[in-house]
Specification:
The complex is a heterodimer. By secondary structure, chain A is mainly α. Chain A contains 45 helices and 8 strands. The N and C termini of chain A lie far apart (82 Å). The chains are: A mainly alpha, B mainly alpha. Chain A: It is found in: Cell membrane; Membrane.
């Protein structure tokens, strides 16, 4: 099976448990297990090759110009880790099936677990560091979901956030480090980087890269001082803890250090940073673990300690150290997963994990006790269990390591750590399982069903088998992985139990005896521990996060104080200053263009533009007047566009002007009709000065630009020449929009849709949220006159409707070759529909509007996207258009371009967005009009299904119809007494039975 | 001959636009201004058509058609706003 497929399988399979949970929890578990099992099988098929030292690769170019290739490889190290991840994953899936209760969303659990598994397998099989980074971030995200799986527990949520923050920040640091590393090596492929040892270690950027990468590895692997997140992640269900903290998540950091070991290790910097951190972590975490009463907390700190141990071994930079590290990774994964699962069983059966409330379980749950004891003895480093062998190797290495010239520091600290490690392991056994049977357990414990203890029992068997016969059961595996770590040519000494009386054996003996002594004197030690003050990591973390939040709030509040005038001032001054700075730095060529002759009509336009602009300034306190005056500006600008040969722009501008006017008027309904004079006289002068300087500057700049040819050749020529041949259209503006710059347009349509949806969401909140009370209490500030839906307007717009739609279709169809296109057509059709809304009312029009505007927006983006993707099937890049000529009988030969599909997307997007936004805003006024009465909900409802069930007549109910006309067509008056004199309300009544008779 | 007629007509409409402008800027009420703006749009349409004849291109006509079709919507919106406050009821 291809390595890429092995990494992809868990992701693909993640959907299965989510679907199959409907048929039962066992099916979901079975599906997850089948996916993991299949991936494991595919992996193990490569085992013979990997054992023979071969590397299996699968390469796909993804974004080659970025150096990001989807390259996967299975070498010894990847093989080992992938086997651990998938193998222990299988055991966890089985265990979780029995561990999780009926109330837990099990389908979600397995989906998250598979996502996480896929991300982990991706990390260990990546042959490209950028790809690895992607999977790295995916593990952070998916582990967040897993740790926070019990959403109802605040500890779970906080723990998940803390894990995400710490590992996420580490991930950021690692991205920077990896980019530096790839830059030095000249490639982002790991197999290439591993060949560039000299170049990397002699580079000036070696140290920064090393520190940044280690930032990622240390946070992920919970090394001091980032170790605090791991114990808090214990709020997760036990299967998660067992998986994340024995075989996978926290091992990712170790994996990374092992992966880059050939190029990063071996320098003094590496030794002092990595080995020292590992040693400190090993020591501190082991000490804390002794005093933890919670089984899982004890195991969590012991995990941190063991991670420190492996980090220390990798940090030594020796080949023997690397072998020991790999071996301990295998051993730790086996005994720690078994321990976590045993702790979970105890919690599950006794309903507590508190060591103070446990004890004597050996008699009540003998199977669990046996498993836990075997695993814990291995953790303590007792001979004939696998933990002993690798711990022995570690101590042997430590005994020969000098630190800053001193030969004693490392061995002594390692010995103390080993002693602490033995202590907490013994305590786990003694306080949990030994001692007298108690009668005050929260729940009477007994051994769980087979399915639950099968997984830990399997692991415990491995612990013993490797412990007794290391060469048979682990030798080839360790050889294979260690060989990959050190970069080949490894001559491994056989793993032995007896090396004679070495320093390591002496330290081991001291550790075991000392551990027993410490355990015997546990009570006074615990009292002393309780009495000493120590920093609480969670409090510090919360304080830092709080401080960051407060700082961000302060900066936001200071810069973003809500005053529009201030933003505009700053923005304008900034732009002018930037323009001035740019202008003062460069040279200015001679004028190369002639002034065009000033025709009298152009002069009239100019006079109008200037007068209107000046009048806006003069009359801006009267908002409606300002709006009318801006209408003149829009008019002149549109005519200018036509006059200066930009018909596309003109058509767009004409339509936009109308939509803008409608939008502004909708808003103005709720706004004060006059602007208050806000600023004082001094500020006023200041604002005038800014406005004048900016206006003159902009005008001057435009004049200067227009009087000269550009210094460099413009893009326009390319567009003009290639529009027909490449884009198949003669309207260059449209071809640019749908083809040359199609990606931009695609983004714009999407953004337009998002903006409309945001407006909709905001108005929805206004309509139904707390502020709707304000809206309901709102009363119009100007007197109302006339009727709502004048019949002349009503009839006029209905006659206009088909014509307007036809014009829209026409403009759309010919847009590719002549002025027009999807955008303008969309605006025209929107205006046609807005006319109906204005003339016949929202409710009446909406009842006849069968398609939901949200759907239109979605369809638009989809149509544009699908057209773009269609280009792939043609073997060309996204959004490359194609065209051809078609001859149908009875018609002239005509052109069909794929760009039309894209343009259709633009069209739908524009129609949906404009109407959703305008309709949404107009609902505010109706909310104010109908008040809080739920009966009228349909008047403001947006969704088709929420609309009025009653079929409205041909006219909105409020329309005043001529009386004789109305009577002839069955419309009755709302008020019977004056039916013959007054126009009647257009409410159509059903003929009753009596009338029919 | 058509040239002179065109020049004369364009001159008239340009002058009309200036008068409209005067009415927008100086008027007894907002209603007059909205009406003047609407008339201005009508005159602009006429101007566009005349330009189209002058230049001999059809694009100007299309712009004027579009203007004629959509321009009045803004006027309607203003009118409805002045009468009712709420333009989409």
């Amino acid at each position: 099976m291809s390595p890429a497929l092995i990494a992809a399988l868990p992701f693909l399979g993640a959907v299965l448990p989510a679907l199959l949970i409907r048929t039962g929890r066992s099916h979901a578990a079975l599906a997850a297990g089948a996916v993991s099992g299949l991936a494991l099988l595919g992996l193990l098929l490569h085992l013979p090759a990997a054992l023979a030292g071969q590397v299996i690769t699968a390469k796909f170019d993804w974004l080659p110009w970025l150096g990001l290739n989807a390259n996967f490889m299975i070498d010894g190290l990847g093989m080992l880790f992938a086997t651990l991840i998938l193998g222990i994953g299988l055991l966890i899936i089985l265990y979780a099936r029995f561990y999780l209760s009926n109330q837990d969303p099990v389908g979600q659990f397995y989906t998250y677990l598979l996502l996480f598994q896929g991300a982990m397998v991706g990390i260990v099989l990546s042959d490209n560091i950028l790809l690895l980074l992607i999977f790295w971030e995916l593990t952070s995200l998916s582990s967040f979901l897993l740790i926070g799986y019990w959403k109802h527990l605040p500890e779970g949520r906080q723990g998940a956030r803390m894990a995400l923050t710490v590992t996420g920040l580490g991930g950021l640091s690692m991205i920077a480090g990896m980019l530096i590393l790839g830059n030095i090596a000249g490639s982002y492929d790991i197999s290439q980087i591993l060949l560039a040892k000299e170049a990397i270690q002699s580079s000036d950027l070696y140290l920064p890269a090393l520190i940044l990468i280690l930032g990622g590895a240390f946070t992920k692997s919970a090394q001091f001082p980032f170790h605090f997140w791991l114990p808090h992640a214990m709020a997760a269900p036990t299967p998660v803890s067992a998986y994340l903290h024995s075989a996978t998540m926290v091992k990712a950091g170790l994996f990374l250090m092992a992966r880059l070991w050939p190029v990063l290790a071996g320098t003094p910097e590496w030794f002092y940073i990595v080995a020292t951190t590992g040693l400190i972590t090993m020591l501190i975490a082991a000490k804390i673990a002794i005093f933890k009463d919670d089984l899982k907390a004890l195991l969590a700190f012991s995990t941190v300690s063991h991670l420190g141990l492996v980090t220390f071994l990798l940090g030594l930079g020796t080949k023997v150290g690397a072998v020991a590290a790999v071996f301990h990774i295998i051993n730790h994964a086996s005994f720690k997963a078994a321990l976590f699962m045993s702790a979970g069983i105890v919690d599950h059966e006794a309903h507590t994990r508190d060591l103070k409330r446990l004890g004597g379980l050996r008699h009540l749950m003998p199977i669990t006790a046996t498993i836990a004891t075997i695993a814990a003895l291995s953790m303590a480093g007792i001979p004939l269990f696998n933990g002993f062998l690798s711990k022995e190797m570690m101590l042997e290495e430590a005994a020969h390591t000098a630190w800053l010239g001193s030969p004693y520091v490392v061995p002594v600290l390692a010995a103390i750590a080993a002693l602490f490690s033995a202590t907490y392991s013994f305590r786990f056994i003694a306080h949990g399982f030994f001692g007298p049977v108690r009668d005050d357990y929260p729940h009477k414990p007994h051994d769980p069903p087979f399915g639950m203890w099968a997984s830990p029992a399997f692991l415990a068997t491995l612990v013993v088998l490797i412990g007794v016969m290391p060469i048979t059961f682990a030798g080839p595996f360790v050889q294979m992985a260690a060989n990959a770590v050190v970069g080949g040519d490894l001559h491994m000494h056989p793993i032995k139990h007896w090396h004679g009386v070495t320093p390591a054996l002496i330290i081991s003996g001291i550790a075991v005896v000392g551990g027993l002594i410490l355990l015997a004197s546990f009570k006074p030690l615990k009292a002393a521990w309780e009495a000493t003050p120590r920093p609480e990591a969670k409090a510090i973390f919360d304080w830092i996060v709080g401080a960051c939040g407060a700082a961000a709030d302060w900066i936001t509040a200071t810069l973003h104080n809500g005053s529009m005038a201030r933003y505009l001032t700053l923005f304008t001054i900034g732009s002018v200053a930037a323009g001035f700075w740019a202008f003062s730095g460069g040279g200015l060529g001679p004028e190369t263009r002639e002034m065009l002759p000033i025709t009298p009509v152009a002069l009239v336009g100019w006079v109008m533009l200037v007068t209107a602009s000046a009048s806006v300034v003069a009359f801006h306190h009267n908002r409606i007047l300002a709006l009318v005056l801006i209408g003149i500006v829009g008019l002149i600008v549109s005519i200018c566009f036509i006059y200066l040969s930009a018909p596309d722009l003109a058509l767009t501008q004409i339509s936009v002007e109308v939509v803008t006017a409608v939008l502004m008027l909708l808003a103005l309904n709720f706004l004060p009709k006059r602007t208050k004079r806000g600023a004082g006289p001094l500020k006023h002068v200041w604002h005038i000065a800014i406005a004048v300087v900016t206006g003159l500057g902009t005008g001057g700049l435009i004049y200067t630009l227009m009087m000269r040819d550009f210094a460099f050749e413009t893009m326009s020529k390319y567009h003009l020449v290639n529009s027909h041949t490449l884009g198949g259209g003669d309207n260059v503006v449209n071809v640019i929009l749908v083809d040359f710059r199609g990606y931009d347009t695609y983004g714009e349509v999407t953004v337009l849709g998002i903006a409309a949806l945001v407006i909709f969401a905001l108005t929805e909140a206004l309509l139904n949220g707390a502020s709707s009370k304000k809206l309901i209490a709102w009363r119009p500030d100007v007197p109302r006159a006339g009727d709502k839906h004048p019949i002349m307007l009503l009839v006029g717009t209905r006659v206009m409707m088909p014509i307007a739609l036809l014009v829209g279709v026409f403009i759309f169809l010919r847009g590719h070759n002549l002025p027009g296109g999807g955008f303008i057509a969309g605006l025209v059709v929107s205006i046609a529909l807005v006319m109906q809304y204005m003339a016949s009312g929202f409710a009446w029009t909406q009842a006849r509007q069968k398609v939901y505007y949200h759907v239109l927006i979605g369809l638009g983006v989809l149509a544009a996207g699908i057209t773009g993707i269609g280009a792939w099937f043609n073997g060309v890049p996204f959004l490359t258009s194609d065209y051809g000529y078609v001859k149908l009988p009875g018609l002239e030969k005509f052109e069909l371009a794929t760009a039309a599909g894209f343009d259709l997307g633009v069209f739908l997007g524009v129609v949906g967005s404009v109407l959703l936004a305008l309709g949404g805003l107009s609902r505010l006024a109706r909310r104010a009009a109908v008040g809080a009465e739920p009966v009228h909900a349909h008047i403001i409802a947006e969704k088709p299904e929420a609309r009025s069930p009653e079929q409205p007549g041909a006219f909105p109910p409020e329309t005043l119809l001529p009386q004789r006309w109305a009577q002839a067509r069955g419309y009755t008056s709302a008020r019977q007494d004056d039916a013959d004199t007054k126009p009647v309300k257009a409410k159509k009544t059903k003929p009753t039975e009596a009338e029919e008779q | 001959m058509i040239t002179y007629a065109l020049i004369f007509a364009i001159g008239c409409y340009a002058l009309a636009l200036l008068f409209n402008l005067y009415r927008v800027v100086k008027a007894p009420g907002v209603t007059d201004r909205v009406l003047a703006l609407d008339t201005m749009a009508v005159n602009a349409i006429a101007l566009l058509v005349l330009f189209g004849i002058w230049e001999g291109t059809a694009i100007f006509f299309e712009a004027s058609i579009l203007y004629a079709m959509t321009g009045f919507v803004a006027t309607v919106a203003y009118a409805k706003f002045l009468l009712r406050g709420d333009i989409i009821e």
